[in-house]
Known about the structure:
With about 80 residues, the protein is α+β, with helices and mostly antiparallel strands. Helix content is about 15%, strand content about 20%. It has helices at about 25-30, 35-40; strands at about 45-50, 50-55, 65. The protein has a three-stranded mixed sheet with strand order 2-1-3, with helices on one face. About 15% of the residues are buried.
Amino acid sequence: MAQDAATSYTKMAPVDQYLMADRDAEIALARSAVPESIARDAEVQVLARHGFETAVKGKNGFRVYRGTGVDFRARS
C-alpha cells in the first residue's frame, strides 16, 4: 500500500539505523550509482554519526554518496 503523500513524520529513526557497518561496502554502493568513468575519480562521501563525511578525495569535481531518503542536515 502506498504511503499517503500528506503523511508527515515529526521524528526520524535513530541515526544508527542508517549507518552501514562496512565502510568499503558503502563506498562501493555510492560509486555504483554513476558510470565507472565518473565513479573512479569522484569524491565519495559516507554517512557518519554527524552527517556525511569524505571517505575518498575526488579528482574530477563529482561527488557520490548513497541515498538514505533522509535529510540529516535537518536533524535536531
